[in-house]
């Protein structure tokens, strides 16, 4: 920033001269001073930014109820102040041709940037205007000297120079005091700008994440906004801590890196702007610390409408506020570290792979819980490995039991087996009435009672109604059910069954229906039986 | 997941009866066939074959009751279908119809579980656990039914 400071100081000192003598000094400065050359490379985009600033005025957040000219001036000042800084970064790395080639991109970008920065940069207007009033006398002559063929540029520059001399250049207060303020605020502003560009770059990557965050609860949104604030502040601190030309150099590289995706950037940054706006409101509501800045912002807006001619005093008055905000951001980094941590975790989680992994893990633990209920003695066990061991043992024991029982059943006297199904059916039902008569497990016979009508009725959802409803309802359902169920099974017996009590009827009915239903299923699935007997 | 567990709970009552019915049918059929062919004095190989058939009937009835939506049921039925071709080969080694060819991952418990569960060698862990839960449910039901039958007969 030292070079920039020097350059601005030089511009500042050259301010009256440029007003009076116009372009000659700038040409001389272009010859002598390297930093003015930077500005000259940035100039095309500055001019185009001025145009875009005019066109995009209603869409930006400059809804300060200004008149149109004021609005134009405001945005122009912002744009130019902003773009002088970041075009300087560009020009450090890039040659003149790249800047001229990327003029459209730069304009697009700056368009998006002004949108995104609308709220944030209001508080930084003063120093921008300081830069603007300091730079512009140098800028436009340089522009004209470099691009003399472009008549449109000349026209614009003429307009700007008029405007500049009329509005901004008129009250040149003490040059050194203003340059002081410029030095401080350009540092912070540079950092901010860095952060914004970084945000834009990262938003390209993590845009769905941001959208998802937007869809989530307001508390999360607030947290999100705080975290984005963190990012800006971190960038601010980091850049101001660097405070060297290298920072500018890397910044320029970053800018160039993001320049490739600059066409897509305005849309994403439009979204970013929405979020940032909301985040600003949230933070302003939630955090007292931010409120002075907002107050300054609003006061600045009011002051801007009042002091058309002299923004420089307002810039000097607003300078401590911005500084204070910067100082506030430094101690607040420590408690916000955990938010950054959460952010990182959330960033991990929104990665598709880790998201799928998390879902998978949740599913697995859910299945484990389900298995815990099924496997006896597994509810006390903690740890997945032990639980899996238990499950494996249980499955193995069950399979062995099946094997053993099949061997046991093979030794059954085959003479009994002609009516075994009827016998078994009868006795299973009877064992329900008299529990564990035949060595049934105690939980086995009990479910037979409610399930038995369900098997006959073939419409399980109707059964709770049947069981709980009074007789009238039961008969109405009964009539429907006979028509429904009668097609499947014996229609003659169904009225009897529904008229009587369920508990009494079930065994009786089962006696009669068991063979028939068995024949039904036999007839319907003969291949299954053959398969089973293979 | 709550709905699924609810469905399994609702089906658990009816599935038990269906399982008992299906198994009893096939069991009686096996018994009638064996009684038709060999009326008296079941020899040792005959008993072995019959026990194997009963076990296969038990597993197939289990799989049929569980329905085609279950992967283990599908794998089991497929195995029971394709069983007769290599019956002699498989019978000499292991009688169990649930044995699958051992997977490559046999070191951990998940690999063990894969080998235990029919068709488990081509499931992911999540599906494997879910299918295991259902398989355990059906298997325990089957065991209860078979136990009831054997208790009735003895």
From TrEMBL, chain A:
Residue ranges annotated as compositionally biased, kind Polar residues, are: 301-319, 514-534
Feature: compositional bias, Basic and acidic residues: 211-233
Which superkingdom heads the taxonomic lineage of this protein's source?
A: Eukaryota
Location relative to the cell: Nucleus
Q: Which UniProt keywords apply?
A: Nucleus, Transcription, Transcription regulation
- Which positions fall inside the BHLH domain? 348-398
Q: Which InterPro entries match?
A: bHLH_dom, bHLH_ZIP_TF, HLH_DNA-bd_sf
Report whether Nucleus shows up as a keyword of the record. Answer: yes
Q: Where is this region: Disordered?
A: 200-275, 301-335, 513-534
What name does UniProt use for this protein?
BHLH domain-containing protein
TrEMBL record, chain B:
Bias kind Low complexity: ranges? 92-106
Task: Please report the organism this UniProt entry assigns to the protein.
Answer: Citrullus colocynthis (colocynth)
Indicate where this protein resides in the cell: Nucleus
Q: What is this protein called?
A: Transcription factor IBH1-like
InterPro entries per UniProt: bHLH_AtIBH1-like (IPR044549), HLH_DNA-bd_sf (IPR036638), IBH1-like (IPR044660)
Annotated keywords:
Nucleus, Transcription, Transcription regulation
User: Where do the segments described as Disordered lie?
Assistant: 89-110
């Amino acid at each position: 920033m030292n070079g920039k400071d020097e350059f601005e100081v030089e511009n500042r000192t050259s301010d009256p001269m440029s007003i009076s003598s116009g372009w000659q000094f700038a040409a001389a400065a272009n010859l002598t001073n390297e930093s003015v050359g930077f500005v000259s490379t940035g100039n095309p985009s500055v001019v185009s930014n001025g145009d875009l600033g005019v066109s995009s005025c209603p869409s930006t957040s400059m809804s300060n109820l200004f008149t149109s000219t004021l609005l134009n001036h405001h945005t122009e000042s912002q744009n130019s102040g902003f773009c002088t800084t970041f075009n300087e970064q560009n020009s450090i790395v890039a040659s003149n041709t790249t800047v001229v080639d990327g003029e459209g991109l730069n304009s697009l970008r700056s368009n998006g940037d002004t949108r995104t920065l609308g709220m944030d940069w209001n508080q930084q207007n003063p120093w921008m205007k300081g830069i603007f009033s300091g730079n512009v006398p140098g800028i436009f002559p340089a522009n004209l000297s470099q691009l003399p063929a472009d008549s449109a540029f000349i026209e614009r520059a003429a307009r700007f120079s008029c405007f500049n001399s009329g509005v901004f250049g008129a009250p040149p207060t003490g040059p050194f005091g203003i340059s002081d303020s410029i030095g401080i605020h350009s540092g912070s502003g540079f950092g901010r700008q860095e952060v914004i560009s970084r945000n834009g770059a990262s938003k390209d990557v993590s845009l769905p994440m941001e959208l998802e965050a937007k869809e989530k609860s307001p508390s999360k949104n607030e947290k999100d906004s705080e975290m984005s604030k963190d990012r800006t502040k971190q960038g601010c601190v980091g850049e101001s801590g660097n405070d060297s030309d290298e920072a500018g150099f890397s910044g320029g590289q970053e800018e160039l890196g993001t320049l490739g995706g600059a066409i897509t950037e305005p849309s994403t940054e439009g979204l970013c702007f929405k979020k940032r706006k909301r985040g600003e409101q949230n933070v302003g509501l939630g955090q007292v610390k931010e409120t002075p800045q907002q107050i300054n912002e609003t006061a600045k807006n009011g002051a801007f409408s009042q002091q058309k001619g002299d923004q420089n005093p307002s810039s000097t008055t607003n300078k401590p506020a911005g500084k204070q905000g910067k100082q506030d951001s430094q101690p607040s980094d420590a408690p916000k570290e955990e938010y950054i941590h959460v952010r990182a975790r959330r960033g991990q989680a929104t990665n598709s792979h880790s998201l799928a992994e998390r879902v998978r893990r949740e599913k697995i633990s859910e299945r484990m819980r389900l298995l815990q209920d099924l496997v006896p003695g597994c509810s006390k066990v903690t740890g997945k490995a032990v639980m899996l061991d238990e499950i494996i043992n249980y499955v193995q024991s069950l399979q062995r039991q099946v094997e053993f029982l099949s061997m046991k059943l093979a030794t059954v006297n085959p003479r009994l087996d002609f009516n075994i199904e009827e016998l078994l059916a009868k006795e299973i039902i009877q064992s329900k009435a008299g529990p564990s008569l035949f060595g049934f497990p105690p939980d086995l016979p009990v479910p037979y009672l409610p399930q038995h009508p369900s098997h006959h009725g073939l419409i399980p959802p109707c059964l709770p109604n049947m069981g709980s409803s009074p007789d009238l309802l039961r008969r109405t359902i009964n009539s429907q059910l006979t028509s429904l169920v009668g097609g499947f099974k014996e229609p003659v017996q169904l009225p009897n069954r529904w008229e009587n009590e369920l508990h009494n009827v079930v065994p009786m009915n089962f006696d009669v229906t068991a063979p028939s239903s068995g024949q039904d299923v036999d007839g319907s699935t003969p291949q299954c039986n053959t398969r089973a007997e293979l | 997941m709550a709905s699924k567990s609810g469905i399994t709970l609702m089906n658990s009552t009816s599935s038990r009866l269906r399982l008992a019915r299906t198994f009893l049918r096939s069991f009686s059929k096996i018994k009638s066939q064996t009684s038709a062919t060999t009326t008296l004095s079941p020899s040792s190989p005959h008993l072995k074959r019959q026990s194997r058939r009963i076990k296969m009937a038990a597993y197939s009835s289990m799989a049929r009751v569980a329905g085609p939506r279950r992967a283990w049921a599908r794998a089991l039925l497929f195995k029971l279908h394709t069983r007769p071709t290599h019956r002699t080969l498989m019978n000499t080694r292991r009688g169990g119809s649930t044995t699958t060819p051992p997977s490559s991952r046999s070191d951990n418990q998940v690999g063990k579980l894969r080998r235990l569960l029919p068709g488990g060698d081509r499931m992911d862990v999540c599906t494997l656990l879910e299918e295991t839960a259902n398989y355990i449910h059906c298997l325990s039901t089957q065991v209860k039914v078979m136990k009831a039958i054997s208790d009735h007969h003895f």
